[in-house]
Amino acid sequence: MPIQEPKLSLLSAEAKESAANIEKRLQLGSKLSDVATCEEDVLELLSLFNKENYILSEHRGKYCVMLKESASPVDMLKAVFHVNYLHWLERNAGITARSASNDCRPGGRLQMSLEYVEREFKHVKYDGELAGWSTDGLIARPLTTRICECHVT
Q1: Which residues on neighbouring strands pair with residue 57, listed in sequence order?
Q2: Half-sphere exposure of 92 (CA within 13 A, CB side)
Q3: Treating both helix axes as pointing N-terminal to C-terminal, what angle do 73-93 and 109-130 enclose, rounded to 10 degrees?
Q4: pLDDT tens digits for 67-92?
Q5: Alpha-carbon gap, residue 108 to 8, rounded angstroms
Q6: How far is C-alpha 105 from the geometric centre of its chain's CA atoms?
Q7: Is residue 53 over pLDDT 90?
Q8: How far is residue 65's CA from residue 75's CA, in Å, rounded to a whole number?
Q9: How far, in Å, CA of 36 to CA of 49, rounded?
Q10: pLDDT of 92-128, one tens digit each?
Q11: Could you tell me which residue ranges the Root UVB sensitive protein C-terminal domain spans (predicted)?
């Protein structure tokens, strides 16, 4: 049986616009060295996302997701959920990116959004399963770059 495309007609015009904007801005499989502009940014990102299998930052208007070698399809789904929340913060609360190091600090947008994702992802995943959605993970072909933690000091 062929896979059917999701029925986008069920989405509001605003939701369709947000999805198109996120699609244009999402870079899944970015390189940390291309995103971080200084050592402080690298250290803050690694510290903030130390328990996650992805790192997320905004760089030049793109949502850049760096995957660790251990990242699974569920981690990719969680990263995209995180991107959606960052987009919501920008669009609805006016909270925009500054520098990676500032955004990682307490009260910064990455720190604040990661706390939200850690709290809510399992609930969203569960609710999606109840509604009949497949939440086993994101099926995507990210760029080949993965972060190997054995090289991080």
Answers
A1: 64
A2: 9
A3: 120
A4: 998 888 899 999 999 999 999 999 99
A5: 33
A6: 17
A7: yes
A8: 11
A9: 14
A10: 999 999 999 999 999 999 999 999 999 999 999 999 8
A11: 24-136
Size of the chain, expressed as the number of residues it contains: 153
Query: Tokens 């995507």 appear where?
Result: 140
Mean pLDDT throughout 145-151?
57
- Alpha-carbon distance of 38 to 136, in angstroms, equals 36
Mean pLDDT of all residues belonging to the chain: 86
Cβ-Cβ contacts under 8 Å for 36 (sequence gap 6 or more):
42, 45, 57, 100
Q: How many CB atoms lie within 10 A of CB 122?
A: 11
